[in-house]
Structure formats: C-alpha cells, structure tokens
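Here is the promised in-class demo. Please do not try to memorize the tokens; focus on the logic of going from shape to residues.
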C-alpha cells in the first residue's frame, strides 16, 4: 500500500474532498497537498518531497498537468513515481495524451464522495 501521497490540484475544495475520501478508505497515509505543478516538480526534483504516488489534476495555471507529466518523465530520479490523473476531463484524446506522457491511470473526477473513495481504494490497496 502507498504510504506517502502527493496531491496536486489548484482547487482548495478538491484538496478537502480528496482528504475526506482518503480518511474514509485508507489508514496510515501521509498526504502532501500542493496547488502548483511547477512547485511540486521542483520539490520532487530536489528530493524535498518523496511520495510513493502522485494524484494530479490537469487543468492548472502556470504549468498544466500534461506539462508536469512530460517534465517528470525527463527526470530520471523521479520518473518512476506512479501518477494517477484526476481531472474533470473525460475527453478521449486528453486521456490518451496523459497516458502517453506517463500517467499510470486516468479518472474523471467523480461527483460523489463515495465514488472517489472507491477510486482511491482501487488505486491504493
């Protein structure tokens, strides 16, 4: 089971929902929530943070999730970290591009908390 989780999303409400879902499905996990993909990439590259898995939104200012995925794959020391995309998009070409850029899996953000809990159980257990 993954113990250290990095959640990258520019929406504070999504951080709260993610944390609530995690508390329902998983024990003994540490979550680092970040609003900036660029800042997350810098901290990952410098080993300031060392997550077991990353949950990533795509639509963010400054650096998109797609750009983050692309840059992550260029950095040998961190490209092994699995990335799960959680996005409002369900557009097939967007999903395909994310997977081409290194995403391990892609989920459209669910509307209900229990649906997110089920996604997290599937991915983390």
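The designed amino acids, position by position:
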């Amino acid at each position: 089971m993954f113990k250290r989780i990095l959640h990258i999303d520019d929406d504070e409400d999504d951080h709260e929902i993610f944390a609530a879902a995690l508390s329902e499905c998983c024990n003994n996990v540490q979550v680092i929530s970040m609003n900036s993909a660029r800042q997350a990439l810098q901290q990952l590259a410098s080993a300031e943070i060392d997550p077991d898995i990353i949950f990533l939104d795509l639509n963010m200012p400054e650096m998109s999730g797609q750009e983050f995925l692309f840059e992550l794959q260029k950095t040998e020391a961190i490209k092994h970290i699995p990335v799960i995309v959680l996005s409002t998009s369900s557009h097939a070409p967007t999903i395909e591009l994310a997977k081409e850029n290194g995403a391990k899996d892609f989920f459209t953000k669910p509307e209900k908390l229990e649906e997110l809990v089920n996604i997290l159980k599937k991915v983390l257990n």
